[in-house]
């Protein structure tokens, strides 16, 4: 599949849960996660995000996150990968789920993004 999804959360269980939810409707969409810190604490880590990018089999990635510092780490990680990564300032669960479900049925990326606009966090 050309597009994949990356989930970044401050809490490992949130990232894992969103991935599990997505797998119910989009089994063919590659989903990778970067949740929490390596020692189990709450937070995000740029290296874990880069690893999620590299572990994802897709060449183009849609990245979703939970809180502001995750966005900062995502932005830095995007600078360090050769993959095309689009970052969305949208409600994490709803937008990642919507995007993956639409990608599963081969919806054009422009139409996926049109659906995500209504989920933008203001």
From TrEMBL:
Reaction(s) this enzyme catalyzes, per UniProt: dihydroxyacetone + phosphoenolpyruvate = dihydroxyacetone phosphate + pyruvate
Pfam family, one: EIIA-man
Keywords per UniProt: Kinase, Transferase
Transmembrane regions listed in the UniProt entry: none
Tagged with keyword Cytoplasm: no
Any one cellular-component term (Gene Ontology): membrane
One Gene Ontology molecular-function label: phosphoenolpyruvate-glycerone phosphotransferase activity
Classification via PROSITE patterns: PTS_EIIA_TYPE_4 (PS51096)
Record domain PTS EIIA type-4: where: 2-122
UniProt key word Ribonucleoprotein: no
GO process terms (BP): glycerol catabolic process; phosphoenolpyruvate-dependent sugar phosphotransferase system
Function recorded in the entry: Component of the dihydroxyacetone kinase complex, which is responsible for the phosphoenolpyruvate (PEP)-dependent phosphorylation of dihydroxyacetone. DhaM serves as the phosphoryl donor. Is phosphorylated by phosphoenolpyruvate in an EI- and HPr-dependent reaction, and a phosphorelay system on histidine residues finally leads to phosphoryl transfer to DhaL and dihydroxyacetone.
Subunit and interaction comment: Homodimer. The dihydroxyacetone kinase complex is composed of a homodimer of DhaM, a homodimer of DhaK and the subunit DhaL.
Protein known as: phosphoenolpyruvate--glycerone phosphotransferase
Species for this entry: Pediococcus pentosaceus
Record lineage: Bacteria, Bacillati, Bacillota, Bacilli, Lactobacillales
């Amino acid at each position: 599949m050309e597009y994949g999804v990356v989930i970044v959360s401050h809490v490992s269980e949130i990232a894992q849960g969103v991935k599990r939810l997505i797998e119910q409707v989009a089994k063919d969409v590659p989903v990778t996660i970067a949740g929490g810190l390596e020692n189990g604490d709450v937070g995000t880590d740029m290296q874990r995000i880069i690893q999620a990018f590299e572990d994802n089999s897709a060449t183009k990635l849609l990245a979703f996150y939970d809180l502001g510092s995750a966005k900062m780490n995502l932005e830095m990680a995007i600078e360090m990968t050769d993959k095309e990564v689009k970052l969305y300032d949208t409600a994490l669960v709803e937008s990642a789920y919507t995007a993956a479900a639409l990608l599963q049925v081969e919806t054009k990326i422009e139409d996926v993004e049109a659906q995500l606009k209504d989920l933008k966090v203001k």
